[in-house]
Design brief:
The chain has 9 helices and 13 strands. It is α/β, with parallel strands linked by helices and about 325 residues long. It has a 5-stranded mixed beta barrel. Strand 12 and strand 13 form a beta hairpin. It is globular and about 65 Å long. About 35% of the residues are buried.
């Protein structure tokens, strides 16, 4: 991926608008890929940058940079949040790949938030469990994901380590077909890749996009020799002809869910949604009401207790957010 275009673009203010793709962003600055493949540093028109990675935009050249005039309509949008605010960070996705590993132990709360955010945005989620070469840790992690597999969530075993002989005790031994299956699931799609530190996300991206780290360095250097900080979210083409691309966002984003009403939460959790229609009250919160089919399913072992606990915590969080 070449660095943003640093050659002068001496263009008058009446230059026609061009359409482009936002491929990197940090703060109020974006890198836009123009129709000819050139990458141009762009700024928003006005004080607030509404464009995120994955957006199609109309922009106007201005000397060696550009100005984003319009963000074209989106198919979907994901949000992240910190202690202070919720903000958008990726758009127009076909899929969210949640990469976790047998070691270090993954956070089920973070996993649940990611799945709920994808479900709310109408984006297909895919979980990949890496380090299947670590037999015992992998068995434990695979068992923790059993409730997700039971509710129909796709979970792929993966080993990004050098190939090794399969183990008879491994529930999903590392094989080349596992990586091939993942590549097949990525083909023809724009996929956001998420994963906490230590899961092998950088290894995966560099294996699928050779030279990805070098491309990131070029973008950083191209942002006027350090005048802007390194981009935080990036788009990588695996194959432009088939529209296959990855979006990398550092760390495991704490997904913003505050745009979801508390009563909308249960339908976004498939294992809970499967029982909610059997409750005595149509407006049941599934927390304390008599005749609640969800609570009965938890007691009967049909809904995982950890999943139900996460539901209660998120319901409380979303209820507090409205006030």
């Amino acid at each position: 991926m070449p660095a943003p275009n640093k050659s002068p673009r001496t263009v008058t203010a009446s230059a026609p608008l061009q359409e482009g793709l936002v491929i990197a962003g940090h703060g109020r600055h974006c890198v836009v890929q123009a129709a000819d493949g050139a990458q141009v540093l762009c700024h928003p028109r006005g004080k607030k940058n509404q464009a995120v990675v994955g957006d199609r935009v109309r922009w106007q050249p201005s000397q060696d940079e550009g100005v984003i005039e319009t963000v074209l309509p989106r198919r979907n949008l994901l949000y992240r949040q910190d202690e202070l605010r919720t903000k958008s960070f990726a758009a127009n996705l076909d899929q969210v790949l949640i990469l976790i590993a047998a070691q270090p132990e993954f956070s089920e709360h973070q996993l649940a938030r990611a799945l709920i955010a994808a479900q709310a945005a109408g984006i297909a989620p895919l979980i990949a469990l890496n380090k299947s070469d670590l037999t015992q840790p992998f068995e434990r992690a695979w068992a923790r994901l059993a409730p997700y597999r039971r509710m129909g969530q796709d979970v792929l075993p993966l080993s990004l380590a050098p190939a090794s002989a399969p183990s008879a005790s491994d529930p999903a031994p590392p094989t080349p077909s596992a990586t091939a299956a993942l590549k097949q699931r990525l083909h023809g799609k724009v996929t956001l890749v998420l994963g906490p530190s230590g899961t092998g996300k950088s290894t995966l991206i560099n294996r699928l996009v050779p030279g990805a780290l070098a491309a990131t360095s070029e973008i950083s250097e191209g942002l006027h020799s350090g005048r802007h900080t390194t981009t935080s979210t990036r788009w990588y083409w695996i194959e432009r002809a088939s529209a296959t691309a990855l979006i990398d966002s550092p760390g495991f984003q704490e997904f913003g869910l505050h745009h979801i009403a508390p009563m909308e939460l249960a339908p976004l959790m498939p294992d809970i949604a499967a029982h909610r229609g059997e409750c005595r009250f149509y407006n049941c919160t599934h927390l304390h009401e008599p005749g609640c089919a969800v609570r009965a399913a938890v007691e009967a072992g049909q809904i995982n207790a950890s999943r139900y606990r996460i539901y209660g915590e998120l319901f409380e969080e979303l209820s507090a957010a409205k006030y």
